[in-house]
């Protein structure tokens, strides 16, 4: 299985232009520890920056593997730490293993069955109901008293630092090209970002935020439960960060009619329209870079 899994991952990585210098993609001891019997690349593993796969161990337990070239922002070690922490308060995948080499890193978690809110919207499977579930979950997350014990941060200084770093990073493997950004906004990433860094609302870190609240990161389980995924940017921050990104995605998906039920379920009285617009614009920058 070691050779088969490594050969499969190596082939997929080479298709994305990445060829590791140090031989095997995963160390033998990691695969032996996981006792992998079968591997299937997940149908949603179309990202050019990551590989996602479903693993099955020798006890027929399903696991989820994510592999990525090591990054300066949002490494999988951050997701590992946050998944372990948030799992004490909300339903989230459990961390099974983590490994980092010189060039890439891997995180393995338990597998969750169900449909993401994004899939529900795309498939028309009670899209409004799914959106309302997302709004209700964010309301509960943002109201959580666990924020007082949260050791992670996703407030404006962190966001601005990450946004600035993206301007300077060489990202040939991530597939982000400035021309696509300019085609969308009519300006370069630097021109778009400059006013957001120059004029911004007062910093707020009083809320527990997901940090990357796109609709694919909320899962409605086959059992009707609700799970939070991809928590690598979770931390103390401004509630409007999550709301702005979710709204931006609905607009990109051409379902703006779902914004109203989403905000109704969340609680419009808790929303500051000016702050929401700022974070919606900031979400546009991160979405397209």
Automatic annotation (TrEMBL):
EC number: 2.7.1.95
Coiled coil regions, renumbered to chain: none
GO biological process, one term: response to antibiotic
Family matches, as Gene3D superfamilies: 3.90.1200.10, Phosphorylase Kinase, domain 1 (3.30.200.20)
Keywords: Antibiotic resistance, ATP-binding, Kinase, Magnesium, Metal-binding, Nucleotide-binding, Transferase
SUPFAM superfamilies: Protein kinase-like (PK-like)
UniProt-recorded Gene Ontology molecular function terms: ATP binding; kanamycin kinase activity; metal ion binding
Residues reported in the UniProt entry to bind Mg(2+): 217, 230
Pfam families linked to this entry: APH
Family: Belongs to the aminoglycoside phosphotransferase family.
Protein name as annotated: Aminoglycoside 3'-phosphotransferase
Species name: Litoreibacter roseus
Source organism phylogeny: Bacteria, Pseudomonadati, Pseudomonadota, Alphaproteobacteria, Rhodobacterales
